[in-house]
Amino acid sequence: MTTMKLIVVLAAAVVAMPLALAHEVVSSPDGHIKVTAGLKGGKPFYSVARDGRAVINPSYLGFELDKGSLKDGFEVIASKRDTKCETWTQVWGEDKDVVNHYNELRLCLRQRRGAKLRLDVVLRVFDDGLGLRYEFPKQAGLGEFQILDELTQVAMPVDAQAWTIPTQGTTYYEALWTKAPLSQKPEVSTPVTIEVSDSLYMVLHDAALVDYASLNYTPRHLPGAAVTLVASLTPWKNGVKVYGHAPMATPWRTCIIARTPGELITSRLMLNLNEPCKIADTSWITCGKYVGIWWGMHMKDYTWSQGPKHGATTANTKRYIDFAAAHGMKGVLVEGWNYGWDGDWARDNKFDYTKPYPDYDFEGLQRYALSRGVSLIAHNETGGFAKTYEDQLEAAFSLYERMGIHAVKTGYVHPLMDEKEDQHSQYGIRHYLKVIEAAARHHIMVVNHEPAMPSGLCRTYPNLISGEGFRGQEWNAWSADGGNPPYHVTVLPFTRGLAGSMDFTPGIFNFANKAMPGTHPQTTLAKQLAEYVLLYTPWQMAADEIENYEGQPAFQFIEDVPTNFERTVVLNAKIGNYLTIARKDRDSDNWCVGSATDETARDLDLKLDFLDQGKSYTARIYTDGPGADYRTNPYPVTFTTQAVKRGDVIKVHLAPSGGAAIMIVPVKPVTNH
Amino acid sequence: MTTMKLIVVLAAAVVAMPLALAHEVVSSPDGHIKVTAGLKGGKPFYSVARDGRAVINPSYLGFELDKGSLKDGFEVIASKRDTKCETWTQVWGEDKDVVNHYNELRLCLRQRRGAKLRLDVVLRVFDDGLGLRYEFPKQAGLGEFQILDELTQVAMPVDAQAWTIPTQGTTYYEALWTKAPLSQKPEVSTPVTIEVSDSLYMVLHDAALVDYASLNYTPRHLPGAAVTLVASLTPWKNGVKVYGHAPMATPWRTCIIARTPGELITSRLMLNLNEPCKIADTSWITCGKYVGIWWGMHMKDYTWSQGPKHGATTANTKRYIDFAAAHGMKGVLVEGWNYGWDGDWARDNKFDYTKPYPDYDFEGLQRYALSRGVSLIAHNETGGFAKTYEDQLEAAFSLYERMGIHAVKTGYVHPLMDEKEDQHSQYGIRHYLKVIEAAARHHIMVVNHEPAMPSGLCRTYPNLISGEGFRGQEWNAWSADGGNPPYHVTVLPFTRGLAGSMDFTPGIFNFANKAMPGTHPQTTLAKQLAEYVLLYTPWQMAADEIENYEGQPAFQFIEDVPTNFERTVVLNAKIGNYLTIARKDRDSDNWCVGSATDETARDLDLKLDFLDQGKSYTARIYTDGPGADYRTNPYPVTFTTQAVKRGDVIKVHLAPSGGAAIMIVPVKPVTNH
């Protein structure tokens, strides 16, 4: 497919435009946000205000191409406006129905001199922010071209505190999010989550990244702003940022604008700025929970490679299938099942995606799994050898499809893709899309580990169900820095989580780290439960070794918690400190609620304003028990049942790095039929 | 069968005895207990001392028969002694192996005048108490006879506090155990649990009650004792106590003697005084847990009888079978499945034990249950019409056996058996044995409700797996007195529980009593869990409606708790106040622990001295959560996991009428095979 297909064709009104007009204004449907865009001395710019106050100061736009500068000397040759208001339904997600309501302004620019290159700037303004993208129209002077630099700016009126990770070299976006004023930041990856004030939160990112480079920002001190973020695309190794060809649209440069941290989480701007679903029949795309032979490798109980401690054996996998079947889990992930793991697997490029190890009866196990209402999730570690994987994609996915396997977890553990390019460069982005499209053809869902940062592409390809691109649970197994700190979970939903669903793999119940004695997940057990609500993905893993769930009453919550939601409500939030989210199951009238805190114990009042009026519910509440503390004793969980109705308040006490998890279910009458 | 068969044939040494010797002494194997028995002025008597102190003062023995008095004018014609030391294995129970070690003295008595009737008094003295029984040897003057009164006395040196229930008329032993000095008691049923001092506890009861009347005691003020308990047998309606025929042995009159309340619970004296197992192949006798359509009737969600709310429907039962299968429960009890429930079922005598109601597919459901590894438990309510039941026993049990049903719960809800005799009279005792024997022939286990008080007969007939004969959970559903009080569970194991396993049916999780709003079980939820350990039966019910277990993490304990034990240890106990029991699973190295308190909150230190030395265990601890109180909020349960080893102390806090339940499991190495 080409990027051309992604350009939204709108029934647009072309407005004849006086060339003398330096800028135009486009407002959000509710009128609060106004975006000004136009030219300043021939240089394209935009600025953003909310309720009359500058949110983004005038910020320049443009490119350096191999075929010349596209940053100045422009005139506006036309502007077009459009409005869209639609409601679309997610195949899966945090909300069932998504309102896509925006006003669009397209500025058609042309350089006055030279090749008179044309460039469109498209702005979509929503009640919850904006997207801006460039389009390179088909034109004589611009066939194939190279983007040497994208010059997009975000000029911030104040040097606000921001949660960021550094631009990624080889760490797969697996860095800790830290908070500091923007001016003190190095070059940062997107998303960039900015706390401007108690009533203004902004998140910068890109949407619909399909054939382009990942967007980073460099903080600069430029005139007209306290700090200006300047786009910095992840380059190919030759220095080129993007290979383009007109016509072509860039990904959207997005900015969510919110009054509360919670509004960031309920914003669907990222999804709205992606193309509608391209998969005609999505009936094979499902939601669920899974277990896997994986944490056992981190705990050194098993090896990925062959040998006496090989984890991916037929007998062991059968145990996991049986466990999944007994506990209503639909998937079993098995890592280390296929040839390629022996030796230096991350360097040797010898993975075979169809050939199981001799002690692993791949087809027999899948038949057994299907007979028990479960399926294997195929694991495809590539060691970063993307070409090798691409060469086998058809064979592997055909096999999986024939076997009834509808999900694959991919991995790219290598500093570079194919030993040369960054994974989040255009090279990597192209590869990931190839996998997603091949998988879609074969009715396979993809959980992409060591991926590019997601950009809402799951709207277009809902088989891209989840991904990594953050420090997941595994960092609690082997991280020399002691694992993910207590505040980690209270930051992820406001940063990486806004880019796409997260395969965090929560649910560690045994805190004794056999691999690195003395370390353990820096949460309480109740907080592990809360993560199932707070860290969204349609396929949640119960990540611990199944032995560690035996006899664990708190596992009931993992059994009960839904993974596909009709509606999401944020009850309270302070980024980096605490967070409570309530989500309504899409298939029932059940709600689940998750609360988490950083290292500080807290008492929270959870007001149940979201429940249906007049309906009686039972709340099944899991909270940190007496003495629970992530440092000394993570285990105590108090469970209680409480009759609740709309408007009631549930008081929960969160221990240091503690949490609460609640299932709220309607009271059902007993029947004998 | 005849009672003759019950007489233990011992390799006995007949000792020629000087007639002048007024009494003999027989000691317990450890020498602490000494029982003196002989004649005082021709009247048979016995007395008991422990460590030189009188425990029972000289107490007379004898009978009034229709054929004359058997209370005086005796001479000792011989005495025989024997010793037995054996270890036998229970088919199921609180301990696997039982040591049966006693010294026996048999006094052969003959009246000097008249018909010169002979009577043997047999005493067995164990380290934990004694049994005394009479034998009527075959003799010319005594063929058929009537016992008009049994004159056995227990002369207490002090008027001690005792836990008793009044002699039963029509209340099926379902009275509250109360504590008062013996002298202030009315006629009481056995068991009688006496707290003589902080280091002397005694329990009086009868063992091996197979063709006799139940034993009660009347406190009397007689010379030579502070208070004397005089036997009072439950009569036939014509006043006769027992119809006998020589040779014949009476049941044992038992007295457990203990230094601590806990020693009462671990005494197996009652079992040792019953005959060994008469069932050759016991492989079909199993242990397990069950659910049932029963509490729903008490909650008025269902009716026993036909109609729109009929509980025993095919669809409803299938749900219960599915639930049982999903949660490792082996049985599903369904009440109201058979014809007879419509109208005034407790009076109409129309029960049909083979004919299901039209909306209940009895055979189809059992096939379905078996396919899921579950079985129906047949319910046979008789309304007290024993003869009607006896007439159908062969047909019913043959049908059940053919269907693969190996358990039946019987019921006798009627003030009288066959509208004329007391259930605990010889008439009733004979009926119950008939049912047990018929069931054994057909490989059916019996849970006997509204029974006679058990007497350890389950040793002889281990298909008699459990019974009622106390205020069970159902009293929490409809009792006008507010249900079982908080102290109830801390008394039962020291009273009724010493007579035999108890089908208490614990596990109510929904405390909202729809049938009697405002009332509810007077326990916390954690105490409901503790009851699974404290109130022993090899078939434990999860009594609540299955809807009320959905999503309940504490149900994990019910899933995990074993019901057949290798060993039982009492960690602490104060009768009527608190109690902690630890029991080791017979099929694994798992232990379970249950603690309960009365209305007073308590902190208990549970010392794990019973665990294997050098082994690592994980304790999964369920305790009352913050704010738990049986009066206001029974629901909060705190769950925590703790690594433990022998000698460690687990500290538990019990709420008012609260409890704690613990599973202790060995740490298992992870394997891939």
From TrEMBL, chains A, B:
The family database entries (Gene3D superfamilies) matched by this protein are listed as: 2.70.98.10, Aldolase class I
Q: How does it assemble?
A: Monomer.
- Residues forming the Glycosyl-hydrolase 97 catalytic domain are 294-469
A molecular-function term among this protein's GO annotations: carbohydrate binding
Pfam families, alphabetically? GH97_C, GH97_N, Glyco_hydro_97
| Keyword terms of this UniProt record | Calcium, Hydrolase, Signal
**What positions does the domain Glycosyl-hydrolase 97 C-terminal oligomerisation occupy?**
565-664
Q: Where is the signal peptide?
A: 1-22
Q: Which organism is it from?
A: Sodaliphilus pleomorphus
Names of required cofactors: Ca(2+)
Residue ranges of domain Glycosyl-hydrolase 97 N-terminal in the record: 26-276
Q: Please state what the protein is called.
A: Glycoside hydrolase family 97 protein
